[in-house]
Design a protein that fits this description.
The chain is of the alpha/beta class. The chain contains eleven helices and six strands. It has a six-stranded parallel β-sheet, with helices on both faces. Helix 2 runs parallel beside helix 3 (63-73). It starts with a strand and ends in a 7-residue tail after the last helix.
Length: 215
């Protein structure tokens, strides 16, 4: 069974070149093309592809917003961002929108077909340079994150670090000699100040900013 692919890019030459390139792949079939994000969404509704390749900088609706809308309508359809942009904000935006893969436009034919096959099988795919960018983003603290953390009180910082180390609310309560209710109040304040939603987010934030280390 061939993987049905839709290509969305506002540059016709690149779009058609990609389609021609994929024509030689035995297990891939390009079933439609779109010149902007709006058209991509409409053609996804009509053709129901397995995988959608989207550029970021497209008119009407950009690739990140198109990805978000496609994923909201059809969560089972896989999307891969194929862009010339390797900036952190673009990668972060695409992945947060739900993209299953991210490739740069200078990728090889093998990387492209591997990415399509991988996301079709339910895996995530990032090219090596994008993987390195994502990893460095977790390891290198950003000025914004550091400033946000500095707004926490000393007690909130203590509780933040204990949650980041995997301690439960009851364990923190016992350790700091405060009630469970007080711990939960501090926790909610921490989440609000840092723009986080869960204990898992606390761990990620702490790792990203070097506040805790993996053993």
């Amino acid at each position: 069974m061939r993987i049905k692919v839709l290509i969305a890019d506002d540059h016709q030459l690149f779009r058609e070149g990609l389609a021609t390139l994929l024509f030689s792949a035995e297990n891939i079939e390009v079933i439609a093309q779109a010149k902007d994000g709006s058209e991509a969404i409409e053609k996804v509704k009509h053709f129901k592809p397995d995988v959608v390749l989207l550029d970021i900088a497209m008119p009407i609706i950009n690739g990140i917003e198109a990805t978000k809308k496609i994923k909201a309508l059809f969560p089972e359809i896989k999307t891969i961002t194929v862009s010339m942009h390797s900036d952190k904000q673009y990668v972060k935006g695409a992945l947060e929108a739900g993209a299953d893969g991210y490739l740069l436009k200078n990728c090889t034919y093998r990387q492209l077909t591997d990415a399509i096959q991988s996301v079709y099988e339910g895996k995530k795919y990032l090219s090596q340079d994008i993987t390195e960018l994502v990893i460095s983003g977790y390891l290198t603290p950003s000025a914004t994150d550091t400033n946000e953390y500095s707004t926490l009180s000393e007690r909130e910082k203590d509780i933040f670090l204990l949650f980041a180390e995997g301690k439960s609310t009851k364990e923190i309560s016992d350790k700091l000699f405060i009630s469970v209710k007080t711990v939960n109040t501090h926790k909610q304040n921490i989440l609000d100040k840092l723009g986080l939603k869960s204990n898992a987010d606390i761990v990620k934030y702490a790792l990203k900013n070097g506040l805790i280390r993996l053993e």
